[in-house]
Amino acid sequence: MREIVYLACSQCKNKNYTSTRDKKKSKDKLELRKYCPHCNTHTIHKEVK
Questions:
Q1: Rounded Cα distance, 4 and 43, in Å
Q2: Which pick of 15, 34, 36, 46 has the fewest CB atoms within 10 Å?
């Protein structure tokens, strides 16, 4: 079953995006490089609870 996760900017810690992932297949936390409107640049966004 897929679960909704929130992605937070690694620099300003704002939760800018949501995504889904399968907890059974991927054990480690999701990391994506996405645009942060608060930092006004592309940063790494990490999965948070």
A1: 21
A2: 15
Whether this prediction's pTM lies above 0.90 is answered by no
pLDDT in tens, 4-45: 999 999 999 999 999 999 988 988 999 999 999 999 999 999
Structural domains in the chain, sorted by start = 2-48 (2.20.28.120)
pLDDT of amino acid 46: 97
Eight-state DSSP code of residue 10? T
Tokens 């999701």: give the residue: 30
Tokens of 5: 């996760």
